[in-house]
Amino acid sequence: MRILVIADYLPYPLIGGDRVRIYNILRRVARKHEVSLVAFLEKSSDIEGVAHLKEFCTHVEVANFKQRSKWAKLAGMLGYVLSGKPPELRLLQSDELTKKIKKLTSETDFDIVQIEHARMGLYLETLPPSKSRKSIVMFHNFTAQQYGRVSHIEKHWFRKLRSKLDSLAMGYWEPRYAGKFDYSTTVSEDDRQLLLNANARLEVEVIPNGVDVEKYQPLSFEKPLSFEKISQSLLFLGNMGYPPNIDAALYFAKEIFPLIQKKNNATELWIVGRDPSPQVLALANDNLHVTGRVEKVLPFYQKTSICVVSLRAGGGTRLKILEAMALGRPVVSTTIGCEGLEVVDEKNILIADTPVEFAEKTSRLLRDKELYQRLATNGRKLVETHYSWDPIADKLIKLYEEMITG
Length: 406
Description:
This protein has helices spanning 17-29, 48-53, 70-82, 95-107, 143-153, 157-177, 189-198, 227-230, 243-263, 278-281, 298-303, 319-326, 355-367, 369-386, 389-405; strands spanning 2-9, 34-41, 59-64, 112-116, 134-138, 183-186, 204-206, 233-237, 268-272, 288-292, 306-309, 331-333, 350-351. It is an alpha/beta fold and 406 residues long. The chain has two domains: 2-210 and 388-405, Rossmann fold, CATH 3.40.50; 227-386, Glycogen Phosphorylase B (Rossmann fold), CATH 3.40.50. The strands form two sheets. It has a seven-stranded parallel β-sheet with strand order 3-2-1-4-5-6-7, with helices on both faces. A six-stranded parallel β-sheet has the order 10-9-8-11-12-13, sandwiched between helices. Strand 8, helix 9 (243-263) and strand 9 (268-272) form a beta-alpha-beta unit. Helix 1 packs across helix 15, helix 5 packs antiparallel against helix 6 and helix 9 packs across helix 13. The longest helix is centred in the middle third of the chain and has 21 residues, at 157-177.
C-alpha cells in the first residue's frame, strides 16, 4: 500500500508525545508499506530531522510554520467563524503546505491518506478526487474536552473565555467533520466513546499510544547510590510550554511538594521539558530543578525514582506514563493524568486527586520498598502486554487492509 501521512509538525526530533507516537507508528508501518510524509516545521532547526525520516519514508515534504501577527490572526479567524469553522483552525492553514500536498498527490496515487489531529482535518479538502483512496483522521485527543478543561484551570478571564468558546466550537465541528473521513481513530476507549456520543454514525477504532519496550528496559539506580538515597528524587516530565503541563507543574510544586518536604526535606523535584514558562522557571530552588529542553531524558529517569503526573487538564493518554513504566519507575498520577490507560490504583500505579492524598501516596512510595517494587514490576508487565508499539502498528496496518478491501 501507498500511504500519505499529513501531520501538524515533523515527528523528529522526538520532543513531544505527539511526535513520539507518529514517529514510532510511521517507522513500523514503513517496514511493510510505502509511506510518505507532509508536515510543518515548528522551528527552522527541525529541518535536520528530514534526512533521518527519509531513511524509511519514500517522500518527506515540509512547510514552514508561520506565526501570524495579532491582527492577521484576528481577521483570518473571523473569516473562519463566518464560514462555520472553528477559528483555531485558521492558525494551521498554509498555502505552502497545501501546495506540497497537491504536488505529492498529483504524482502518486495513494491508497490511504492519514491526517494526524482533527485540527488538521481541513487538508482533506486539498486532495484530488479518487474513487479508490481511503482517508483516516487520527484523534490524539478530543480537542473539545481538552479546551474545556483548560478553561476550568485558566485564571485570566480572556484566555478562560477563549478556551471555553474553542471547546464549544470544536465540540460541534470535530465529530461532524470526522464524518467526511472513511475512518477515525482514538488513543483510548474513553475517547472513542466521547466521539461516538457526539456522532454515532462514525467508524472509530482505538489505536492506543505505546512505548518501545525493547529500547526502554528497566533501569537500575546510579551506582553506588542505594535505593534509600536515590528514592528521594521525583520527576515531572513534559512540554513545559503546554498550558496543562504548566498548571500541573505549578500545582505540584506549590500545593503538593511542600507537604512531601515536611516529612522529608531532602526530597528533590526535577521538572524536565522544553520551553518552560516564566512561572515554571521561577519555581527553581535548591531542591527544585527546572532544566528546560534536554538532549536525553534517560539520565533524569536514572537519577530519580518516581514519576509524578499531577495533570488537571489535557486529553488523550500520556506517553510519559508508559515510558516511566517501561523503565521500571513507578508513577503517581491524578485520575485525569492516567485516564484512558488500563491502570489499576495500588496495582501498577498510584492515583490521587487532592494535594494531601497525592503527597501521602508519594511519601509512602518513597519509603515503602515493597510497594515500590510491586508497582515497578506490574507497570512493566502492563506496557509489555498492552502498549508495545509493534502490535499497535500491526493493528493499524490491519485497519488499512480492511479499509482497502472492505
